[in-house]
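pinging the channel bc i need a second pair of eyes. not urgent but kinda urgent?? the chain im working w is below, pasted from the shared doc
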Amino acid sequence: MKLIKNVAWELWLPVLLIVVWLVLSAGSTSFYFPSLSDIMNKFAEIWFFDGIATDLLPSLGRIFMGFGFALIVGVVGGVCLGMLRRTEEAFRPLLEFLRSTPGVALLPIATLFLGIGQEMKVFMIALACMWPILLNTIDGVRSVEPVLLQAAKSYQLTLMERIRFIYIPNATPQIFAGGRISLAIATVVLVVTEMIGSPGGIGYFVLNSQRNFDILSMWTGIVMLGLMGYVLNFLFRLAENRILRWHIIKNA
C-alpha cells in the first residue's frame, strides 16, 4: 500500500502534464509537432510488439551488459584503491584525467578498434558508467570508522572478512549513489552509440526516422527512451531500498 501511495504521488504531476499536452496539441496540423493523440496511436502501432523485439530489447541488453561490467570493475577497483591509499594517490591524476574526458570523445577510437557493432556499444557504456561507481566506492571505503578497523585488527579478521563485513557494507550506500548516476549516463551513451552504430536499438530507430522524415515515428522513439529511462531508474530505486533497508532504518 505504501508503495502504491509513493508511486501515485510521484506520477500525479507527469500525468497532469500529459493531459495538458493532450488538450493543447489536439487538432495540431504541424508536421514537426504532431498531436499527442497521434503520437500515442503511432506508439501503439510501432512498439506493440514488433518494436519491442527489434529495438527495445537490444537496447536494454546493451545497457545491462555495459552497466554490469562497469559495476564489477568499479566496485572491485574502488575497494582495492580505497584500501591502498598510496596506490590510489599515485593513480589519482590518471583517474581524474580519464574521468574528465567525455566518453563520447573516445568514440572514434572505439569504432576504429571495435567497429560499429555490439562490442563497441557495450564498451562505451561500460567505460562511461565506471567512473561514478569507482570514485564513490573509493570514498565509501575511505570513510570506514577507524574504530571498526581497530576492532577488526583486535579480532584478527582476515583481509577478505574485513572486505566482506566492513568495507563493502560501509561503501554500499555510496556505490548505489554512483550506480544511479551511471544508469542515467548509460542511457545517454546508448543513444549516441546506436545513432552511429549498426542497425538496431532505440537510438538508431530515432535517427533513422528523422532521416526518412517520419517525424511521428521519431516522436514515438523519444517517448520510448523516456519511458525506458524512468522504468530503469524506478527498478533501481526499488532494489536500492530493499538492499539498503538497514541503512535507511539506521538513519531514520
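so The domain at 37-250 is CATH 1.10.3720.10 (MetI-like fold). and The mean pLDDT is 88. — does that match what u expected or am i reading it wrong
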